[in-house]
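Predict structure. Chain length: 196.
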Amino acid sequence: MPLHHAVLALLTEGPSHGYELKGRFEETIGPQWGGLNIGHLYQILDRLVRDSFVTRSQVAQSDRPDKTLYSLTASGQDELQEWATSAWVRTGGFRDELFLKLVGASSLGPDALDTFIAAQSRSYLAELAGLTRLRRSHTGAPLVALLIDAAIAHTKADLQLVEGAAERLAPLGEGSARAATRADVPDQAAERLGSG
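Prediction complete.
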């Protein structure tokens, strides 16, 4: 529940309403994460209220509908403390569509594998250029800068992996090309028998 815990962290600054939390989340995390859907945020807040990590109260406004404020409870503070101070462990293995694309491209032969690797390398280089520009524009926001730095490091690692994949996966592509050639042999033999 990382988003749930991020909302708890935002509430340590004091009671807030939904749109205020949305704005602070997006300001704190920056554009790399993406926007927080307000409907999803209200679902998270409902769950946090249900779990007694957050309370909800109404504040009357004279010229508008009442405002709903959310406040962190002591058990919410304890939950945040437990979550924020324990190590994050990846569960369920490492899944990345890149590896499925490599399986698909290598199954089509060396030309398809080379085409995919070249296209993916260009994509990562373009992503790195965009991230570098984004990083320069967020020098005053340390958490946002850290997230962008992490994205840069991941993208560089992905680029290095893809660039090494051509050599390491060449035997797979060649095997697929041989299999395709063998698959054509019965057709060619049938054509020769039919013409003879």
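Summary: The chain is about 70% helix and 5% strand.
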